[in-house]
Amino acid sequence: MDSKRHGTVDEPLLRDEAVVALPPERETLNGHKLPVMDPAQFHAASEKILAAINKVIDGKAEAAKLALTVLLAQGHLLVEDVPGVGKTLLAKTLARTIDCKVSRIQFTPDLLPSDVTGVSIYNQSSRQFEFRMGAVFANIVIGDEINRASAKTQSALLECMEEHQVTVDGHSYQLGEPFMVVATQNPIEMEGTYPLPEAQRDRFMARISMGYPDKLSEIEMLETHQAVSPLAKVTPVVTSSDVAAMIATVQQVFVSQAVKEYTVALGRATRDSARLRLGASPRSLLQLLRAAKATAALDGRDFVLPDDVISVAESVLAHRIILDRKAASSGDTPHSIIRAILASLPVSQDAGAERRGS
Amino acid sequence: MTTTSRHETPGRTPRPASTSTGEGGAFSLGPGKVPPARKPGPGAYPWAMSAAVAIAVLGTSLSLNGVFRGWAWLVPAITTVCTVAMTLAVLRALRAHALLITLGGLVSLAFILTFTFFRQQSIAGFVPSRETYVQFGKLLKRAGETVVSETAPVAPNAGIVFVACASLGLVVVLTDALAVPLGMPATSGLGLLAVLVFPATIKPQGAGLLGFLAAAVGFILILGCSQWFEPDSRLQTDNPRGTGQLKRSAVIGAVALVLGLLLPLAIPGFERGTFPVGSRLNPWGVSNGLNPMITLGNSLRNPTGDGRITYATSSTATVYLRSVTIDKFDGDTWAPDDREASRRVGPGRVAPDYPLPSDLVRQLTVIDTGQFTSPYLPVPYAPTAVNGLSGRWSWDPETLSIRAEDTNTRNQQYTVYSALPALTSATLSQDNARPTSISQDFIQVPNNVPDIVKNTAKTVTAGANGNYAKAMAIQSYLRSPQFSYSLQAPVQGGYDGNGLSVLADFLEQKSGYCVHFASAMAVMARLSGIPSRIAVGYAPGHSTGVTVAVAGQEPLPEFEVDARDAHAWPELYFEGAGWVAFEPTPSRGVVPPYAADPASAGGPSTNLHDENLTPGSVTPQPSTSAVPPLAGPGGGAGTSAGFGTALYVVAGALLLAVLFASPRLVRSGIRARRLKPPRARRTGSGGGTAPAPPRDGPVLAWAELRDLATDYGVPPVPSETPRHFAGRLRNSAALGAPAASPSGAADDAGQQAVALLTVDFERQRYGPPTDPAADGASEQANATAAGRIAAVRSGLRRNARWFATFRADWFPPSLMSRWFQLVWTPFRWLGGISVAAARRLAASWQSLFGSIRWRR
């Protein structure tokens, strides 16, 4: 089915640039045809990536790990913070540590959807329309200040993020694997911006905010980053096929019935909470579990613990839930409410019950 | 079986339309018409539920059989209950408001009661009118009189049956209201219990098996119906309305019932097996105004000894307090005859209307009745004046019994002056004349005296010459060793109570208590030509060791009696001497000197008990060593008091020791079971129908670790993951925090064990399924788990203070908290129910008023 689709796209451009990056394809990934990494390899690869990122961004190990988690869980990342704390730097570093195609889109109000997805141009010599791929045809797409683009441009990104494909003029073009959108957003200076609507926020697996570095890290940063751009030193540490294998490994992580039940209970608790107007969607639970699987794999396990779910729950759920007006005015934040729910949600540890996943 | 989490009344639950064409289709538009497509009807539910309630209430009411004589009362009861239940069902089928349904039930109850009892005094035969109200008052008064004056079983007159029917109808409405609109079917048993309480307290042998079983079956039916039609929302089954629910409810109910019946056997003090037994359930413990002859047996069997009366007397002889006499020996049950016509008001001066000898021994007795409640005043015989009473009192010149007119004996303090002829056997034996100056009431022999009584009387008095000799012959016959004192034998033999047929049974079985002995002697005396009556009151009590100062007297010694001293004895009339008390009951009371048998040298005792009771017949103090009646029938024969006490002490100490040790025993039992190798465990727990999930070693070891941590003060939090809990435990002082501990290696063992146990548990619970074939490996893993638990335990013990160690050993918090939870569950449950009931009531109130406003 996939090969057929590819058959329709016979543009030389596509072959030249994208094909190198395109395999491993999604279908094959899901079919477990790729070699799955053994734990030691996986651990080594992930350590290499994290070490490379941490070399560039000081004191942000947590954010780096979460970014890697989202990459391995095949999700998209939304980085939201004030200017100048290294949002774009994180995205770029992550992209550069992997030997794959990276593109960067600076979103502006006059950016058009075709700039993102690509456009068909009439080729005089061949007398045919040729598809010129947009910036989205890459393995890691960095969308800077995504809230500055108009709604239609933002939504052009939607299909890409969800379907991993682009449809132009009735043709669907498959995107590369791995494919990850790292968007940054600036919560202040909101004039003339188009804040991401809920539906679009829901497509990002996780939202992180960088936060300011601590004192020592900041001093070190001032010393080391004085002369040269830190990015210049970054060289790829893993290949894109390595990343694909890592993703396949993550997919193999076992999820027990108990963890599924816990995840569902968490989702239901957010929906039942009186302080929330909108709870976690089923899709968010799916993504939560995928992120938990990636966390488990990064921790060197081949099964998910409730701890994994808890560790990513805040990042995955906080940007999807909407506070009740009363709760918002009484000083609650999505993060505080999720923390409260986690603190009150029992983790069943009884010897009985159905322990096994189906 | 809590079913309190309903959110809707069952009758209003949307149900598929197809079911509404069943029984519930009675209200549909026509046979050919399709039912309207608006709201689907409630179907069979109201009918089944009402039927269940009616069956339950009627079944429970069967236990009233011993309270009423015969079954004539059952017909109006059935009519009432069925009518009310039917009304409820119809209203519910019509989907009326919940509050309206209950109101409708009450209205229909009023109608059917009017129809049954006041048809003449009502409008159109069933609508109450002013005349109905007048008649209603009359019936109530009659019922009240019946309760006060008659004995159970009472003849079912209109008054008492009316009260019974009204109560049963109210119980139907109450049960239904609890089960359906309030959605708490489990509490509907309260209504049934209300019915059951009456026979349980009034009938001497308790509510009876039939009534109790019927009540239980009815209760299970209600539970089953409500569960069948409106299953608990928490039981998330695919098929909510199946017979499975009914079956499950019935099974749970039956198990609870069996437990409830078995539990009393395990509790000391519940010496008789069946649960609702009158003497135990009677919270008043004293005469309840019914026949004192009936309540006497219950009083004697009452182990608590309520109704304490204290008295101080100037008498040198033992004092019997007498309440009332019984002299009519015909009829099914004997009751005091109050002789309303000849009663005189005011006990200031009391004088008999028969001649008394001149040489009287005068006494003064000061009595405080305390909580004892009865219409009859206990006084020593024969009173000449009573001072200090409050309220209006009257006395009967023939029997000298004093009765309250508008009050009772509760909290009365009074002084009784009494006078008794100085009697000796010599003066009594002079009297051989037929009594003349006495009412025929005391001489009449009933027509239907059973042959065995007549024959016995004839045989016993055959050799005796003269009235006194005859009386002594009867008394010694009854005190002879062939008779035994027993409170239980009459109950078991079915002749508890009184009456001529009971007497015949008693003379056959030769075992009974004071009522039987006294009535036997009284009847046999009449058969021999001696006028007689039965006195009911109290045998001499025990000294309290206190003296009471009375004006113009020396301080008087004080005595006390309570329900356990309740007694009956015969009084025989001797011309010239007046009424003379005898004591035919072995082991109770004191034989008066004039009636002491000269033949038996060591006093008039006939058995061991008696010796304790009568320490020399002329001791000024009444017996202080009265044997508690609890030791009563069976044990009384051979065991001396000292040995019995020792036995109790040893048993108590053993019980205490077992109780004290049991948390420890249970706790170590749980630990051993958890750490047992899997093979043994599997064979031990085998036999289940469904393949139970294998409870693997790491999971059980983890449960043990959690409990262990709880015991040593690091209880797990429910919202904690295993890893988090393990981290907290390892960092806590209980296990010696890794950095802080100076004795490194040993404590590290505990730390490491916790970590390994955690990893094992996580892999077992959250990891991919392992190969089940590796059985040997798991056995080995179990041994290591046991070792690790031991390591953790020793680590915990090393770091704990002595108190924590002691507590963990003897009162492990992990176990105790579970037990406390279990104990508290009913209270929490009750609290939940009351809160839910209040909320529902408020909600239905609001919705009712809301709908009224909306219609206007």
Give the helices and strands, then pairings.
The complex is a heterodimer of chains A (358) and B (856).
Chain A (H helix, E strand, L loop, with lengths): L1 H7 L3 H10 L4 H5 L8 H18 L4 H12 L4 E4 L6 H11 E2 L2 E5 L6 H5 E6 L4 E6 L6 E5 L6 H13 L1 E4 L2 E4 L5 E6 L12 H4 L4 E3 L6 H10 L5 H4 L4 E2 H12 L5 H16 L3 E3 L3 H17 L7 H12 L4 E2 L1 H5 L4 H11 L14
Parallel strand pairs in A: 1-9, 1-10, 2-11, 3-6, 6-9
Antiparallel strand pairs in A: 4-5, 7-8, 12-13
Helix pairs in contact in A: 4-5, 4-6, 5-14, 12-14, 13-14, 14-15, 15-17
Chain B lengths: L44 H17 L12 H20 L4 H20 L12 H20 L8 H22 L9 H14 L6 H21 L13 H24 L11 H4 L10 H10 L7 E5 L7 E6 L17 E2 L14 E9 L10 E2 L2 E5 L5 E3 L6 E3 L8 E9 L3 H6 L20 H10 L6 H12 L5 E2 L3 H5 L6 H10 L1 E2 L1 H14 L4 E7 L3 E7 L7 E6 L4 E9 L3 E4 L26 H6 L27 H34 L3 H8 L11 H15 L10 H10 L12 H23 L8 H25 L2 H9 L2 H43 L1
Parallel strand pairs in B: 10-11
Antiparallel strand pairs in B: 1-4, 1-14, 2-5, 2-12, 3-7, 4-9, 6-9, 7-8, 12-15, 13-14, 15-16
Summarize the structure.
With 358 residues, chain A is an alpha/beta fold. Chain A has 17 helices and 13 strands. The N terminus of chain B is likely disordered.
Describe, in plain words, how this protein is organized in 3D.
- The complex is a heterodimer of chains A (358) and B (856).
- Chain A has helices spanning 2-8, 12-21, 26-30, 39-56, 61-72, 87-97, 113-117, 151-163, 198-201, 215-224, 230-233, 240-251, 257-272, 282-298, 306-317, 325-329, 334-344, and strands at 77-80, 98-99, 102-106, 118-123, 128-133, 140-144, 165-168, 171-174, 180-185, 206-208, 238-239, 276-278, 322-323.
- In chain A, the strands form 5 sheets. Chain A has a 5-stranded parallel beta sheet. A two-stranded parallel sheet of chain A has the order 2-11. A two-stranded antiparallel ribbon of chain A has the order 4-5.
- Chain A is globular.
- By secondary structure, chain A is α/β, with parallel strands linked by helices.
- Chain A is built from 17 helices and 13 strands.
- Helices cover 48% and strands 15% of the residues of chain A.
- The longest helix of chain A has 18 residues, at 39-56.
- Residues 1-32 and 351-358 of chain A have low confidence and may be disordered.
- Chain B has 856 residues and is α+β, with helices and mostly antiparallel strands.
- Helices cover 47% and strands 9% of the residues of chain B.
- In chain B, the strands form 4 sheets. Chain B has a 6-stranded antiparallel beta sheet, with no helix packed on it. Chain B has a 5-stranded antiparallel beta sheet with strand order 5-2-12-15-16.
- In chain B, a hairpin with a 7-residue loop joins strand 13 (542-548) and strand 14.
- In chain B, helix 2 (74-93) runs antiparallel to helix 3 and helix 15 packs across helix 16 (514-527).
- The radius of gyration of chain B is 36 Å and the shape is globular.
- The A-B interface holds A 254, 256, 258-259, 302-307, 310, 342-347, 349-357 and B 693, 695, 699-700, 702-703, 706, 716, 718-724, 762-769.
